[in-house]
Amino acid sequence: MSITGASVSPGGWRSWSPGVRVVVRRVRDDLPEAHPEHPALHVPQHSDVLGELLEVDDDGVLVRTRRGDVRVPAQDIVLTKLVPPAPTRRHRPTGD
To answer: Which is more confident, 4 or 19?
Structure first.
């Protein structure tokens, strides 16, 4: 996912209003312990949260994703970006 045009200024996301669609790159909070036999295995340090902004405050953001609501604490936010609305799904006509 491209982060071109991302907000890298500290706290830029604090001016967002609920209802906008956003992507938030965050530090992962679920990193596994390094495997003793394979310490060089790469595990991504960050993940992206994409969806509708529900809440924003000094403590972080709450984003509604396709998989559910995700709270991202302020200290875990690395990059942020406003993104266009999700494309609408078109239903194909069924043959009768």
So the answer is: 19
